[in-house]
Amino acid sequence: MTTPTIEAAPPGTVPEPDWQERYGVASRDVYRRTLVELAREDPRVFCVDSDMGGLETLFGEELPAQYVNVGIAEANLMGVSAGMAATGLLPYAHTISGFAATRACEQLKVDVAGNDLPVRVVVTHAGLSAGHYGPTHHAVDDLAIVRTLPNMTVVVPADAVETEYAVRATADLPGPLFLRLGRAATPLVHHEPYEFRLGEARLLRAGDDVTLVATGPYPVSMALEAHEALAGMGISARVLNMHTIKPLDRDAVLRAARETAGIVTVEDHLVAGGLGAAVAEVVTEEAPCRVHRIGVPDRFFDHVADERELLVEAGVSPERIIRAAASLVRPAG
Amino acid sequence: MTTALDTAPATAAPDVTGPVDGAAREAAVPPGAAGPAGLADLADLAHEVRELVLRMGTSPHGTHVGGSLSSADILTVLYHRVLRLRPEDPAWAERDWFVLSKGHASAALYAVLAQRGFIDRAELDTYSRPGSRLAGHPLRRLPGVEFPTGSLGHGLSLASGVALALRRTGRAGRAFALLGDGELQEGSVWEAAMTAGHYGLDNLVAVVDRNGLQITGSTEDCVGLEPLGERWRSFGWATVEVDGHDLAALDEVFASLPHTPGRPTAVLARTVKGRGVPLFEGKKKSHSVQLSPRLFQRAMTGLNARRAR
To answer: Scanning every residue of chain A, which has its alpha carbon at the shortest distance from the alpha carbon of B193?
Structure first.
């Protein structure tokens, strides 16, 4: 497993204002800045754009020899990136999550995953983060698809801090990566440096009664809110940030299954096929326990709302997490 | 924008005035790199490719005979005269890259790979049989296969990415993709064509096996492709039309790449599906055939008779 290249400062030594300035923006912006830094250090790093907007100036003007725009052509984006990777380059291919996972799914499967090539598919607008753009731009099925692709590593940073860590930790990954980002700024989960370990769930809060396993910016921050409320109810909830969906940290899931009353999964993705399904698959085979899956139900959203509102409407909210966790710890009757 | 190409006749044939001097050609390329065959050897090699395709067609699932036979001459010229390859070192950094975008013509590819020594000829007998590396569509684990193909419409994007990367990293290699004509109905082909044209990838060559037939019949009756040359040119490509069964003409076309500096080249090779075996020539049913021992003998008799003529 790749180890992070960021040196962790001693906890509590980072002045909050600087931290806020560096990371208090959209994960996407931190990602882009980090990519430019990586590309300056390594000429194999290429930015492959599909007319996303922003990369052409931020990256293209800075490092034109390492920038390629294939236009609005997502299937081609995957094939071109695979071809580039086969020659020894490290292409970072950019598009919107839904366009990568569904429109260009076959190229992603056959050309990228099928060849086990180091293409980094970096997607934005994941989950319901494209809120007001409508259901064509919502991507709540992408994890279900990409986690079934052999060779694929799937990472969902919880905030801008983790985004930078994840990008650096996967810089030398020999195979393909699907890095799932949102669109707008989301709450900061991490306020000081820590050691990001790819494939290892990060324990955000210790707890013995029940386990909350979350992935993605709002789900993780909602799980932390729920942890506080549950503590007030006398329930000790373990909170795991499952930033790596594949390979899944089976050990952390099995410990949760064995050491606590049950697991609540939280994701900005369909309850079918995503984190909840992945967790259920693990415990079903090795340590059966109750798993309550909180995520997006089997429907489209055809009205305008922002990301958090849509999530709450979908049933992804601190209140739902609290109720689910409490019911696992103290079953009715 | 008007360019000389826009007015070039779509049917411009290459100017072939005589046989190419093989020794002079080979002296001009890096030692041990280009295909080792002389021009005079090509007919025998192509004949053998067809025989090997027919043999693979006797395997339990048969093979895509028609499209393999229509590609046979193109692949023979590419692998024996054009592509800079090192069979003993398939990953040689300075090599040319080849992508069989019409992956169903795998039998013809395996035949030339065996002729060039990437695989043993004996392995061809395993074609499509349990445990074999020779699947109905090429697997990447086979030496000499750069990308697995079979789902149509992928190869030109892959080759474009290779060509773009080779250029950006200052490497000499070129990227070739062999596409079926029916395959051009896949929209992703034109995404790639547009990108390659935009970037002026003159180290990229798309060869279209224009045999005119797909499973249901004529390409023009299914979803028409003409005017095909105009379509490629309008995407920023230089085009060359050539008789895809004229070995000398193919050799001449491939020897003078890029056709136009600053543009990718589309070689539109007019071919006949099932070419070389009268039983299959021009027949849509030749697309995928399992050859019984009797049918194989009939096909071989026809192939040899055509050769002798």
So the answer is: A76
- On whether any CB of chain A is under 8 Å from the CB of B154, the answer is yes
Is residue A38 domain-shared with residue A176, that is, in the same domain? yes
Q: Is residue A10 part of a domain?
A: no
| Residue B175 with chain A: CB contacts under 8 Å | 83
Number of domains in chain A: 2
Distance from CA of B171 to the nearest CA of A (A): 10
A151 and A215 assigned to the same domain: no
H or E element at residue B159: helix B155-168
Q: Please check whether residue B266 touches A, CB under 8 A.
A: no
Same-domain pairing of A245 and A302: yes
* Paired sense of beta strands A244-246 and A153-155, if any: antiparallel
Do A243 and A123 share a domain, yes or no? Answer: no
Question: Could you give the CA distance from residue A121 to residue A128 in angstroms, rounded to a whole number?
Answer: 19
Q: Does B98 touch chain A (CB under 8 A)?
A: no
Under DSSP, is residue A178 helix (H, G, I), strand (E, B) or coil? Answer: strand
Q: Which of B147, B151, B167, B201 to mutate to test the interface with A (most CBs of A within 10 A)?
A: B147
SS3 A127: strand
Q: Is residue A230 part of a domain?
A: yes
ipTM comes to: 0.91
Q: Is residue A283 part of a domain?
A: yes
Structural domain of A233 = 202-329
Q: Are residues A90 and A231 in the same domain?
A: no
Inter-chain CB proximity A71 and B198 less than 8 Å: yes
User: CB-based contact (8 Å) between B188 and chain A?
Assistant: yes
Structural domain contains residue A235: yes
| Chain B positions in Cβ-Cβ contact with residue A70 (cut-off 8 Å) | 191, 195
- Rounded-to-integer distance, Cα A14 and Cα A17, Å: 9
Residues A104 and A241 in one domain: no
Predicted confidence pLDDT, tens digits, chain A (333 residues)? 444 444 444 555 666 788 888 898 899 999 999 999 999 999 999 999 999 999 999 999 999 999 999 999 999 999 999 999 999 999 999 999 999 999 999 999 999 999 999 999 999 999 888 888 888 888 899 999 999 999 999 999 999 999 999 999 999 999 999 999 999 899 999 999 999 999 999 999 999 999 999 999 999 999 999 999 999 999 999 999 999 999 999 999 999 999 999 999 999 999 999 999 999 999 999 999 999 999 999 988 888 888 999 999 999 999 999 999 999 998 875
Same domain, residue pair A223 and A274:
yes
The CA distance from A42 to the nearest CA of chain B, in Å, is 13
Select from B146, B151, B195 the Cβ nearest to the Cβ of A76.
Answer: B195
Residues A171 and A227 in one domain: no
